[in-house]
Design goal:
In chain A, 0% of the residues lie in helices and 48% in strands. With 115 residues, chain A is mainly beta. Chain B is mostly beta strands. Helices cover 0% and strands 57% of the residues of chain B. The chains are: A mainly beta (115), B mainly beta (115).
Chain lengths: 115, 115
């Protein structure tokens, strides 16, 4: 079974430029997450989807970040315009909730460097 | 508020020695608990998880963890460390919050293994 797929793996851009990340979750997983991981830190949730619906985007900086999950499968996360402080690893995870529990499976991440 | 504390930022052990990584959490109910490992440039790989039942759980790569409710802890152990275990380890709590379900990660413990 294929895991969570993310692309690109690495991205270098200049500040004020736009950037987009793509995620393909594990087949059948209806919940999808985007996290940001700063150097030396644990992942921090940006947004969580249940199928097509964003059910928790309270930590998403909505002035510059946007996300979508069309058809409840693939998702894209966009930053426009990027700032120096956005340099981080952006992780996508997916899960399937069974009863009251779930396990998240992570992709390899996209490492973003903003110059 | 829910939180996860990994008190050791760095740990160094010799190959073949035993290992214990500490994790303490703050949560009002019984949480779902996870340990993930992250190798350089990679995403997070699930090592093991605790939802309920036996408080000593076995995971992949010879790791185990014990849930101690009285101490709010979920420490990760391995009896004999291999050089390939060098990585960063994250403890996470899965908790219901404001009608949603989210993971809260610790800041990680970086493990170095001496030959």
């Amino acid at each position: 079974e294929a895991g969570v797929v993310q692309s690109p793996r690495y991205k270098i851009i200049e500040k004020k430029q736009p950037v987009a990340f793509w995620c393909n979750p594990i087949s059948g997983h209806n919940t999808l997450y985007w996290y940001r991981q700063n150097l030396g830190q644990g992942p921090e949730l940006l947004i969580r989807y249940e199928n097509e619906e964003a059910v928790d985007d309270s930590q998403l900086p909505k002035d510059r970040f946007s996300a979508e999950r069309l058809k409840g499968v693939d998702s894209t996360l966009k930053i426009q315009p990027a700032e120096l402080g956005d340099s981080a690893v952006y992780l996508c995870a997916s899960s399937f909730r069974q009863g009251g529990s779930e396990t998240q499976y992570f992709g390899p991440g996209t490492r973003l460097l903003v110059l | 508020a829910q939180s996860v504390t990994q008190p050791d930022i760095h740990i160094t052990v010799s190959e073949g020695a035993s290992l214990e990584l500490r994790c303490n959490y703050s949560y009002g109910a019984t949480p779902y608990l996870f340990w993930y490992v992250q190798s350089p440039g990679q995403g997070l790989q699930l090592l093991l998880k605790y939802f309920s039942g036996d408080t000593l759980v076995q995971g992949i790569k010879g790791f185990e963890a014990e849930f101690k409710r009285s101490q709010s802890s979920f420490n990760l152990r391995k009896p004999s460390v291999h050089w390939s275990d060098a990585a960063e380890y994250f403890c996470a709590v899965g908790a219901a919050a404001s009608g949603t379900y989210k993971y809260i990660f610790g800041t990680g413990t970086r493990l170095k293994v001496l030959a």
